[in-house]
Design goal:
There is one protein chain. This protein has 5 helices and no strands. With 115 residues, the chain is mainly α. α1 crosses α5, α2 packs antiparallel against α3 and α2 packs across α4.
Length: 115
């Protein structure tokens, strides 16, 4: 039996994702990467310059992986759950913008402690 928990839906994955982002600096790096990714996407669409599109994965993953490898010292969820991880990054970004992230982090930690 595998030691890695298998997630079959986004609803059960997202709390796990949040626990892998417990350090606020890591979350801020993710936020920055996602924001720059979105800016690059918009600039690419507006200007038609392909460099902006090429920069999207560099910005998105670059900031996130620095947070995981040097701050959290854990393996990014992207390697195991690429789709759920990408979706979770945008949800975490939204929760940060809307001021819900502290509440969501507490809920995720409680859920993690129950398992």
């Amino acid at each position: 039996m595998s030691a890695v928990k298998q997630y079959r839906d986004f609803k059960s994955f997202y709390p796990y994702y949040l626990t892998e982002h417990s350090d606020p600096v890591n979350r801020m790096l993710h936020f920055t990467g996602t924001l720059l990714l979105l800016v690059s996407l918009v600039l690419g669409i507006i200007t038609g310059k392909w460099l902006f599109f090429v920069m999207i994965p560099v910005l998105g993953y670059g900031f996130a992986w620095v947070g995981h490898f040097f701050i959290e010292k854990n393996k990014p969820a992207t390697f195991t759950y690429p789709i759920y991880s990408l979706a979770s990054d945008f949800v975490m970004f939204w929760h940060t913008i809307t001021g819900q992230i502290s509440k969501k982090m507490q809920e995720a930690q409680r859920k993690s402690n129950q398992q």
